[in-house]
Amino acid sequence: MRIVVLGARGSIGGAVVRRARLAGHQIRAVVRPSSGTGGFPTGTEVVQRDLLSKESVVEAARGTDVVVHAANAPYPEWPRLVPRLAENALAAAEAAGAILAFPGNVYVYGLPQTRPVTEDHPQEPHTQKGNLRLAVEQRFLQAHRDGRIRLVLPRYPDFYGPGVMNELFRPIFEGALAGEPCRWPLDADAPHEFILIDDAAEAMLKLINTPAAHGRPVHVPGPNPTTARKFIRLVYAAAGSREPTIRVIGRGAFWFAGLFNRFVRSAFEMAYLFDHPVLLDGSRYGELMGSAYPATPYEEGIRRTMEWFRSHRATS
User: Domains of the chain: which residue ranges?
Assistant: First the structure.
C-alpha cells in the first residue's frame, strides 16, 4: 500500500510510519515546514507541508491509497486547529480516493456509564475537547456513509511508548532514570489502561486491511486494566531505580496550576479521566479480525520504552 501519514512527527504518526515501513508499505511522511526531515526509517519519503493549507495537504496525499490523519495540536489550540486539520485530511482522502484512518480516543463518551465501555456506549461528552472530537468523528462517519471516503476509526486508551513525550508520561520515565519523584493527577489507584504506541499502529494497519471494519468505530484497549501506581512501579523497576515517590496532584492543585499555565488550564477539563476512567471493551475487534487486538504486556512495553528514553537522553 501507498500510505501518507499527516503529522508523522507525532507519537501515533511516527509509530504508524515505523510499523508500515517494517511491513513493506510505501510511506510518505508529512511533517510541518518547521520540522526537519531526518529520523525516519530508511526508504521513507519525507515531505514538508503546511497542514493548515487544504491545497498543500491534498497535494501531499496525491497518488496514495491511505491517508492517516495523525496531525494534532496543543490543547489550547484545539478549538482553532482541530476542525481545520480534520477538514483538510478529509479533503485529501476524498481527492485521492483513499481510505482515511483516524486514531480516536475516549473523549467522545464523556463520563462512563458502564465499565467496560463498548462502541455503542452513549456519546455524551461534557468537555470542549470531547465535543470537538465527536464533531470530527461524526463528520468522517457521514463522509463514509455518503460514499466519499472509506473510514478506519480505531479508538484507543492513553498511549505510551517510544517517542511519546507528552506531559503525562515523559516525567515518569525521566523521573525513573533520574531516581526522582514523579507526579500523577487525582488518583494513582483508580483503574486505568494504557496501550503501547506500536500496538496502536499495528492495530490500525490491520483494520485498514479489513473492509468489514471500515465505517465503524473499533476499540483497541490496552493489555488489561491496571493502576497508575502499578504502572509507575514497573517503570521505576525497569530503570533500576528505587521504589517511586508519586506526588498525586489533587483537583484543587490542578485547577490552581492552571491559573499560571495555559496548557494545564486547558487540560483541566479532562481531569475526570483520572478518577472516572473509561475502560474499553475490545470484543468488536476480535469479532472482526478473528484474533485478539495487539496487546504487549506492560512489562515488555515499559522495557522497550525505557530503552528509548535512555537512548534519547544519551543523544540529547
Answer: 2-163+196-222
SS3 label, residue 28: strand
Contact present, 137 and 108 (Cβ < 8 Å): yes
pLDDT tens digits, residue range 35-49?
Answer: 888 899 999 999 999
Task: Out of 3.30.720.200, 3.60.150.10, 3.40.50.720, 3.40.50.150, select the CATH number for domain 2-163+196-222.
Answer: 3.40.50.720
Give pTM, 2 decimals.
Answer: 0.96
Q: Measured at the alpha carbon of residue 134, what is the angle toward residues 131 and 137, in degrees to the nearest 5?
A: 155
- 196-211: pLDDT as tens digits: 999 999 999 999 999 9
Contacts of 79 (CB under 8 A, 6+ apart): 128, 132
Which letter, b or e, does each residue of 82-106 get, where b requires 16 or more Cβ atoms within 10 Å of its Cβ? Answer: beebbebbbbbbbebebbbbbbbbb
Grid cell for residue 118: 463498548
Assess whether pLDDT exceeds 90 at residue 154: yes
| Cα–Cα dist 38/47, whole Å | 11
